[in-house]
Amino acid sequence: MNHKVAFSFADGKTLFFPVQPNEILLDAALRNGINIPLDCREGVCGTCQGRCESGDYSQDYVDEEALSNQDLQQRKMLTCQTRVKSDAAFYFDFASSLCSASAPEQLSGKVTEVRQVSASTAILHLDLDLGTTGLLDFLPGQYARLLIPGTQSRRSYSFANRPSDSNQLQFLIRLLPDGVMSNYIRERCQVGDEIALEAPLGAFYLRHVAKPLILVAGGTGLSALLGMLDELAERGCAQPVHLYYGVRDAADLCERTRIAAYAERIPGFRYTEVVSDPSPQWAGKRGYIAEHFDTSELRDAPIDMYVCGPPPMVESIKSWLQTQALETVHLYYEKFTESNI
Ligand code: FES
């Protein structure tokens, strides 16, 4: 007998659909026209996560970087790995409209610029080939998966800008000592190269801004937040915005001129950078970002906090918020699992 499942979303909408016994929840949702944002389908990226509010379920595989033990205790689950054992209800912290969007598009773009912007980061600019009328409509904070030219390897990168009529895209790329994308960027990437990509992907995006914002970037997690800041600067923002940016070494900091310029365009913009393992010459803030949070700012009023960075950084901020009992902070986060090759 089928199980009856309810999916509720942050915009208050609830959708009901049947799930066959032992069926993967994601397959049932897609079959019923509910396009939950997804990427890996392997329990690794965490994109398809939700929280079970009632009912019994099991999960085939959950990578520890997608959901922590604490997440699992809170009944967070990955739709692509979940099988329901009874009627059940799940909550997703994004708007239902994200699920009615059509499947990601298969696109192609030309490299217009590639530039190293710090010791460990490059910025890649692409001009999408969508004809005269096409527009890639994505939400600031989402990402694209790029096919690395001359290989069969794909890597995911957050958009570092907002959507525009000119279909220009930017991505911050972390340069590894030896990685498929890093080697391409350092050794072969030329202006004019064609790069195939799939986009838009992901459920991390800037919501309607009705509260003060705290944006927290770890390393190239800055990319998604630059897209959000571009959007805030372009649309106007009446709320204060505080960007925290953490890196390992000061030489890893990038796009500081661009960040400084947001102060001209977003009234109430504040910026704090933190270096976890600096040289003795570094005169700025040291350690981990959570150690430098302005707690008076966090306790003042309800806050929306957006965090994008490596899983340990995201987990440390989640734990810190919990120990501080800051229940007025609504946390949205994206853990990017960096490929080491
Ligand atoms: S799509 Fe990646 S964890 Fe489900």
TrEMBL record:
The 2Fe-2S ferredoxin-type domain, residue ranges: 3-98
Q: Which InterPro entries match?
A: 2Fe-2S_ferredoxin-like_sf, 2Fe-2S_ferredoxin-type, 2Fe2S_fd_BS, BenC-like_FAD_NAD-bd, Beta-grasp_dom_sf, Cbr1-like_FAD-bd_dom, FAD-bd_FR_type, Flavoprot_Pyr_Nucl_cyt_Rdtase
Which cofactor does this sequence's record say it needs? [2Fe-2S] cluster
Question: What Gene Ontology molecular-function terms does this entry list?
Answer: 2 iron, 2 sulfur cluster binding; dioxygenase activity
Which Pfam family is one of those matched by this entry? FAD_binding_6
SUPFAM superfamilies to which the protein is assigned, alphabetical? 2Fe-2S ferredoxin-like, Ferredoxin reductase-like, C-terminal NADP-linked domain, Riboflavin synthase domain-like
Task: Tell me which UniProt keywords the record has, alphabetically.
Answer: Dioxygenase, Iron, Iron-sulfur, Metal-binding, Oxidoreductase
Q: Provide the FAD-binding FR-type domain boundaries.
A: 104-207
The protein here is known as Anthranilate 1,2-dioxygenase electron transfer component AntC
Query: Which species expresses this protein natively?
Result: Pseudomonas mandelii
Gene this chain is encoded by: antC
